[in-house]
Structure formats: structure tokens, C-alpha cells
Amino acid sequence: MDAKRLLEVILILVLHFQGISGRKFFLYKRPGQDAVLSCTTESSSPPTCSMVDWLYNRDQTETLTDVRNGNVEQNSARGARLSVNTDCSLVINNITAEDAGRYTCRQWGDGSTDVDTYLSVLTISPSPPDADPKRDGDVTLKCSLFRHDHCCLENSIRWVDETGAELLGEGDGYRVLQQTDCVSFLTVKRQSGHKRKYTCQVVDEQKNVKIEADYTPDFNDPNQIYIIIGGVVGVVVVLVVIAAVLIIHRKRANMTEDVLKPTQHPGEPESNLTYVTVNHANQQASSCKKVKKEEVMYSTVKSQTTEADEDPSSLYSNVRNPK
Description:
323 residues, Immunoglobulin-like, alpha+beta, elongated, single chain
């Protein structure tokens, strides 16, 4: 092969690999957020989506196809959370730590290019996840950055308190463990009387914050527990006193009612007293002769009778003749 032919081959290879390499994007997200991965660069125009594939690499060992010819692969593990916009960008909803990795938008056809997006996901949680800070008065927080190569710069993960001050080594109520790969641990003590917020940050070489996540341990102050218990006991005592007062009042009311009720022997029917008043006037006097009118008033009192003793004398009549 002559020198001219060799130069042409080298030039074709250089242009080809320059086109495939395209451009790289770095995206940082937290679990539960949404992400939009672009398929174009600043100098390129939107491609034809029917000629676009989206490839996914969790690591460097396996490549999966999430989108083929502009359509989401339904058998993809993330298929239900993926969609493609009109500009062929890939949308990921409700991100999880397992979504971290490299996403490649591959455009087929003349001048095909690859646009790579490296998605990193930051998580923060107690360690272990089921740790109970109420048991021993402290808790260990774990901050992890999930990314494609699982490799982070030294001291790229740091902790700060609610004032923004960086926490280093061991201090008042906290201890920071040395960062290992992309994981950092912070152990904090109980903070009675107030809640403290701890923030995990990911920074670049210039100490610019790329992403951060907050966590506020849910400590219960023992004094607050005693106050709550005392309040509950106080309420119970008040309810018991009120119930006792009501019972005593009810008993007194019943006793008063029994005293006022007339005494009645068992088996005796309830006595009935009937009062009858009769006024009688002589209505046959002549209208022209003045006659002295007589008025008579009758009163009848009926007392209770029994089957064993029926005495006519129990019926009394009183006749009063007014003068």
C-alpha cells in the first residue's frame, strides 16, 4: 500500500471515531426524581427518532437496549418508567439507585454519532436501614454515590451540619469515617432539645457541589417521653375522678327520690283519692217572689280498699249547708 492510500485510510478512521465519540454529559440525581437525557449536542440538530437507539451500561460488562428505533423496549426492566420525547431524549421517571450508569444515544445513518450521559444517583439513609436510634441514642448515616465506574475522587463526599460547616474527623456529637470508594459514614449522637440536620454533598476537584442530600435523625428525648407518660396518667386520673363524682351524685339523687316516694306495703294496690264537689241551688223560686236560696256542697273521699277488708265506712260524705 502506497503512502497516499495509507493516509486516506488513517483519515477515514480518525473521522469515524471522532463521530462516534460524540459528547459526554454528567447528570446527578436523587432517588424519586425524574431525569431527561439528551440525544443531541449543542452543535447538532435533533435526529430522526426512528433511527435512534438508547443503550444502557450498568457497568462495563453488559450493554442493554432500552430503546430501539425510537420505541421503548417493553421487556426492559425499566420499561414502565421510560419514555422518549419528540426530540428523541430519554425520560426516566422515579429514579432509583439501580438506574445509575452510562446511557448512550446512538444515531444510525450517515455521520452517526453517540451521545453518552453518565447518570449518578446519591442516596442517604441510616446504616443498617432498620437501625433504631431510640435504642442506644446514636445513629450511623450512610451516604452513597452510585455511578457507572463505582469510583469516586478522594474526599469528594463530605458532610456538613445545619450551619454549613464541614464535619471532619471526630467532634462534638459526631464522628466521620474515612471515605471508601463512593461511600461515606457519619455517626451522630443524640441531640436533646432540638433536631439537627446533616447534609451529604458530592463535590468536584474545585470543591463545587454537584449534588447534596439532607437527613434529620428522628431522636426521642427521654424527658419528652416522661412528659408524655405523665400527661397520659394525669388525663386518666381526671377521668376517674369525674366518673366517681357522677356515680356519687347519681346515688344521692336515687336516695332522695326514694325518701320522697310514699311508703307502700308490698301487694297493696296504689291508693286512689277521689274528690267530688257538688254545688246545689234551688232553681224553682219564682221570679217575682224572693225566696231564700239554699246551697249544698257535697264532698266525697275514697280511700284505698283491699279484698280482705271492704268497709262501707271507708266512704265518708260531708254535707255542709251554708247559712
